[in-house]
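Listing S7. Sequence submitted for prediction.
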Amino acid sequence: MNGEEAQSDDPGKLATGLSSSGVEAVALTYVDNSGITRVKAVPTAKLKSAVTSGVGMSPVFDVMMLDDSVTASGTSTGPVGDLRLYPDLRRLVELAAQPGWAWAPVDRRSQTGEAHPQCHRSFAARMTERAAARGLAASMSFELEWVLDADDGDDFVPAAAGPAYGMTRLIERSDYLRELLHALARQSVTVEQIHPEYAAGQYEVSVAHSDPVGAADDSVLVRQTIRAVGSRLGLRTSYSPSVVAGTVGNGCHLHVSLWRDGRNMFTGGDGPHGLSQEAEAFTAGVLEELPALCAIGAPSVASYLRLVPQHWAGAFRCWGLENREAAVRLVTGTRGHEGRGANAEVKSFDASANPYLVVGAVLAAGLAGIAGGLRLGPEVSVDPASLDDGERARLGVSRLPTSLGEALEHYEKSEILAEALGHELYETIAAVRRAEIELFAAASPDEIAAATRWRH
């Protein structure tokens, strides 16, 4: 049973189908505020109960940190109380790299059935509905980087020695990559591109676009499939933004386009490079809010070991056509295919982020840009690091936060994110960020990289 086949809303029928396929259990996943994918699992026979009554979980997971310790927040009840996890059967899929298992993402609700105010998936859905109320639909996808490790110790031992982007590196791990593509195809994930990347042992995959919630679901499924395929072959996966301090890290770039009445608003307009007025305002809204968004999309202390100039990480707040050093890269698409391919890429984010928070927060910022009638500043057509301070000031280019603490300061001043997230979720995210800043307050870059290397 693949994702396209899991369309029935009858959990009993689905469970019977899964059992006949040899599926023994269903993994129900959610992503916490530190970016860790957490899980509860049920035997296949209990799927109907999970759908009708939910699966219990403690609210304490809202304040769990990446090292599994727990902090406190005035907007979380901590270990007191109970929440229920409700699987979304529309995304139920057999896991090709984990025989006998299926997967579904969950929505978190109270015991009486109301949406939990700190449910990240519900937040993403709410922002999607906010766009729809304006007659707009967002199309999104994540471009994911990871490194492959050939050891099981604390250190990183690259599982491929070939050069960056090199065919040698693909040959070294061609069986692994073939197995990965096969697994993703069986799970109805459309891969657009897969290739070796720049850093040692690093690869990248791009998948087809979807609605915002679907893109976040796909991101979770793809990450865990990559990890599972590697594990079966004796290889270890890291999505950490900084696997080795001082080297190029792993990004997780977000591609987004905006649509109205079936038309891509990122092309065919009279704005810069064909942007419509709404697409320009949306992009300007994201840029305006980007320092605060870094607390969502680059949310770990290790993120700022990656977010540095001249690493294609998007360390400067600016935009440019096909400029891979700008925080927002405008992609117009190849000639004749602009209607399908035109989009904006937010390059500053990494895979320590919760993808549901990312899609929802970017939507909130972009929609605020539309509401405010914002316009893009001057385009930057060179590496912004090559400009002197005066040139950057003239173009309105500024450095994005250089630490999680700095990003948190912007986040805590953001009225847009506070309103969109709601008081409970907004404050709990801040509490987790503050606690992780304190956790690594005395750590060196090497110590930060070592402590976080195998957490994401």
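Caption to Listing S7: primary sequence and predicted structure tokens for the chain studied. The chain has a mean pLDDT of 95. The chain has two domains: 11-116, 126-452.
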